[in-house]
Specification:
Elements: E1 2-7, E2 15-19, E3 22-25, H1 27-63, H2 74-81, H3 86-100, H4 107-118
Antiparallel strand pairs: 1-2, 2-3
Helix pairs in contact: 1-2, 1-3, 2-4, 3-4
Length: about 130
């Protein structure tokens, strides 16, 4: 029997499970947690909780979703970022990319980064 023992980041869909005295972590959940953390950290680095709140509010207003939903739908985040000043947009994308580059061997993270860069009309490797 699998018992839920802990959840990450107050997001209900990312969890660690205890099964036969061993921790089991779904790799999809790990990738999602990495992306969520990179997004939220980047927003805070750029403008503190104000930018985090603004981006979160715009995503909810436009899509009735939250930041974690941008993992499956990076176009949601991109559509909010393209309406920000270009320097802010580029800085956020650069910060997210810098935090996730070492994990880009995971196809889900690479897909997320490619979609995020799409709004800048740049390839995955173009932003450094």
């Amino acid at each position: 029997m699998i018992n839920l023992i802990e959840k990450y980041f107050d997001h209900l869909d990312i969890a660690i499970y205890l099964n036969n005295d061993m921790l089991q972590i779904n790799q999809y959940d790990v990738s999602k947690a990495l992306v969520i953390l990179a997004m939220e950290k980047s927003f805070v680095q750029v403008g503190g909780s104000i930018v985090l709140d603004v981006v979160s509010g715009k995503i909810f207003e436009k899509y009735q979703c939250h930041i974690p939903d941008c993992y499956e739908h990076p176009e949601y985040l991109n559509s909010v970022l393209v309406n920000m000043p270009i320097s802010t947009h580029h800085t956020i994308v650069r910060l997210i990319r810098n935090q996730l580059t070492e994990f880009s061997y995971k196809k889900e993270i690479r897909y997320f980064l490619e979609k995020l860069n799409h709004g800048l009309n740049l390839s995955f490797n173009a932003i450094t």
